[in-house]
Amino acid sequence: MGTFILRRAVQGLLVVLGVTIVVFVATRLIGDPAKVMLPLSASDAQRAAFEAQFGLDKPLGQQFFAFLGDLMRFDFGESIWQRKPALDVVLGKLPKTLELIGAGMFLAIVIGIPLGAVAAIRPDGLFDRLIVGLSLTGLSIPQFWLGLLLIMIFAVGLGWVPTSGTGTLAHLILPALTLAVPAMARIMMLVRSSVINELNQQYVRTAKARGLPFVRVLFQHAMRNALVPVLTLAGWEVISAWAGYTVVVETVFAWPGLGFTAMKAIGQSDLFLLQAIVFVVAVGIVLVNILLDVLFKLIDPRIKDA
Amino acid sequence: MANAQPTPILEVRDLCVEFDTMAGLVQGLRGVSFSVLPGETMALVGESGSGKSVTAQAIMGLIGLPGRISSGDILWKGQSLLTREGQKAAGKLRGKSVSMVFQDPMTSLNPLMTIGAHLVEVLRRHMGLSKDKAFARGVDLLDAVGITEPKRRMGQYPHEFSGGMRQRVMIALAIACEPELLIADEPTTALDVTIQAQVLDLLADLQKSMGLSIVLITHDLGIVAGLCEKVAVMYAGSIVEAGAAETVFAHAEHPYTQGLIRSTPRLDDRRARLVSIDGAPPSLLHPPKGCAFQSRCPVASRQCDEKPARQATPEGGTVTCWTPSVAAWAEPVDRQAEV
Question: Which of A37, B8, B110, B236 has CA atoms 20 to 30 A from the CA of A283?
């Protein structure tokens, strides 16, 4: 297991390096920070001084090697927008995003898995139809619209929770729910079809023939097998929340996390901050993938070291 | 009991099972009756779709939607298992007094559980053993079914076992709680020939040492002859002929039984050409009113449009046919010249 994790970590390092290089090139294409950051009235001399300050006046090749060298020291330069080391800005926003993802995924899994499993007990039964209907609704709602709808109903209309911002549990509820609903719908659908599939397997029939009660057959036998594909999906949900959905949700709720900051960094053409964000996100994705591989090995003995 | 006949351990009376499918009501079983005495080995023989496995599932209480038992009765030592109290009792019997070995050992074990976990699970549930005692008993059981290094094997997963070894595990699971009746649904179909013989020998040994009753479901007449005292031949959801295995093989009464025996390959006569019964069984969606074998029967006549009644044979068996004991099939033509 130790060498397995180590090998995955080395592979992950290469991925992170590759992504960072791609981002270096991409960020140089989205705009000229000197034009965005400085007022329109700034003189050419002021612009040149600005570029010299951040090393943007040097040839692209030279910038790249300086960037690689800095990367080795985890130095992403200074955020143009915040005038602080870019990595510090990112790490400062990180806990807020982790809090949001943690709460959202917790809701999606804790609600999605049991409801999907119960629906699978009687396919096409009343409860199953209800669950399938709810899942389809959850899948079809655009996330940004759902967020705004929840704000209108629960924050503006009923006044139960604040419209935006952060600090208390009340602040967390709506963003977490908005993040959770589509993931919950997908998890519910997959758990349902996966459990239906497992309940039709021969080993379930033999377990019944051995006189085991249905509850045990469902949880001890069918559910464990059904959760293998669900784990894949759950990992995908965490990654896509981490690298995408949180940007939408944090923007709608002005949640001061990584996604919100990424939007700002793009708006400000803050190359250095953007590079740091992408680096941290890439590291996160690699870590989640390693964790998933370890979990798969723990659940399914058939998976050998690859 | 006043009469000399011992009470059958299992009796099936006029059992009918229906499946409510998209196409309509499929009559899986159409009045199946038989009984098994303590320590007796009975074979249910028939081609695919004749209702052998449905019969086994009905006995095990495994008929689930869209199927249901529409009429008839299943009795365990004289007590019905289909009444309300009977169903409760059946729940306790299942896996303990009556157990089952299935056709496909490759998919019959939970891939995420060790062999030991499977054994410990049933032993704790039905025998009330502690974890340690159940484990020790599991090791003994694996040893009893001929698995070497049983202690180490307990910790392994199904994918680390070959097909024959998995079927031995399935048998160990089936006999774990000292059942009185074992239903074996084509236990050797998925295994290669040498392993088949080993598994059948194992079943025969267990039957002798434990005094088990066995219902063996198969389409292989060779297996029946070697292992079973009684045989019941199924066709299109009913039993068409039943009796002592020896007499049924020697004097088959029903044209279908005769055809089955005739189409069994013979190793002792190399000239004999392999023959088959032409045609296919009738659809159980709209089974014929009269004899179900009518369309394939070489000696069918007009009276076969009526349903034949079950009648006793001179040898002490039963047959459901208007014209039993007629030699229905012409001798196979000797085609040696062509070979």
Answer: A37
